[in-house]
Amino acid sequence: MPWSNQGGGPWRPNPGGPWGSGGSGNGQGGPNFEDMMGNLRERFGGFASGGGGLKWIPLVVLAAIALWALSGFYTVQPNEIGLNMIFGRYTGKMASGLNWNWPTPIGSVTKLRVTDRNTITVGFVSGNDQRGNGQSRIDRSEESLMLTGDDNIADVKFVVIWQIDPLKPEDFAFNVRNQGLTIKAVAESAMREVVGRTQIQRILTAERKVIEPAVQDLMQKVLDDYKSGVKIIQVQLQSVDPPEQVIAAFRDVTAAQQDQDRLRNEAEAYANRVVPEARGQAAQILQQAQAYKEQTVAEAKGQASRFSQVYEQYKKAPDVTRERLYLETMERVYGGMNKVVVDQTGGGQPVVPYLPLGALENPTKPAAPAQSSQQGGAR
Fold first, then answer.
1. Is the pLDDT of residue 116 over 70?
2. What is the pTM for the complete model shown?
3. For site-directed labelling of 35, which of 52, 82, 87, 206 has its Cα 20 to 30 A away?
4. Spatial distance between the Cα atoms of 12 and 74, rounded to a whole number of angstroms
5. Could you read off the pLDDT of 339-371 as tens digits, one per residue?
6. What are the angstrom distances between the C-alpha of 14 and each of 6, 10, 123, 284, 349?
7. For the segment 206-258, what is each residue's pLDDT rounded down to a tens digit?
8. Cis previous bond, 350, omega within 30
9. Residues 125 and 186 both lie in one domain
10. Are residues 101 and 154 in the same domain?
11. Domain check: are 143 and 236 in the same one?
12. 190 in the same domain as 287
């Protein structure tokens, strides 16, 4: 029977166990666990018992230390500055490139993007439209409503552009907590201060370009006092409007102000055109009067000088001078007139025959008056 080789078959107890009677693991039965554990102790027990394995311990330790030290190398990008810390204490800043600091847990590195420009909005929040129509804006009236210098309310929305100061990045990292909220609070406070000392009409019209640099300078001063390591690049006013309840009335006031400015400009242009013309005319009249004065004075002096000269001659020869004056006067009086000469001293014909040469030279003029004069003189 086949069970005879197994020591009596399956119904007989086998004192040697399931692998045979010897239980020594010599091929007639299963493996011996005690022998296996003994072999393991012989192979690996030397490291623990101080045998030949001790020479590998320093090498392993040095390799571990080298790997730990190599993990301290890090790279700083061109737009970043690295801040080295040892046991949480700041030790220095590193420029862009490959740098080294003590690895964890001794040291740590904080990288700051000092050239990136950041934006903070006050009075509104920008975001994506849920309908996919692009950017949307949510107004925040609790931030934008501000009291002006003349006790009015203005709705001011603006944007602040800032960056980390490359010269003082450690101040930004260690002196201020929640930098974004701090900058926003300073921006809102500075804007309220500037708006609070300005009239609303100026804010809505001419003072908008003055408010932006004023707020920027005030913010920079406050943040420098905080040693925040923040540099304000620009303050941009997005909108300056009166409250929604009175915006229509303010628009009418603005339109009236614009009309006033336009009419004033037109009046100034008219004045600039008319006043020079009037001044030119006045100067011309003055010059003409001065010329007339000089001419009249010169003529009077000339006549006076002539009279004096005639008088001197008259004193020398009164009769001759009197006759000459009479003839010159008659010459001036009758020189350009038609004349009829009547000789009353002769005893014969009293009328001298006269030929009207002037009438012959100008045929258009009738010669009847001369003939009638001759006839009247003959009678």
1. yes
2. 0.51
3. 52
4. 75
5. 666 666 655 565 556 566 666 666 555 545 544
6. 8, 9, 94, 154, 214
7. 778 899 999 999 999 999 999 999 999 999 998 888 887 777 887 787 788 88
8. no
9. yes
10. no
11. yes
12. no
CA distances from 327 to 66, 333, 334, 336 (A): 144, 10, 10, 15
Q: Which of 326, 343, 371 is the last residue of a domain?
A: 326
Do 186 and 109 share a structural domain?
Answer: no
Count of the separate structural domains present in the chain? 3
Cβ atoms of 248 and 167 closer than 8 Å: no
Of 95, 113, 131, the one marking the end of a domain is 113
What mean pLDDT do residues 167-176 have?
A: 90
Do 147 and 222 fall within a single domain?
yes
Residues, the chain, total? Answer: 379
Q: Is 123 exposed, middle or buried (0-12, 13-18, 19+ CB in 10 A)?
A: buried
Q: Are 124 and 235 members of one domain? A: yes
255 within domain boundaries: no
Which domain, by its residues, includes 317?
265-326
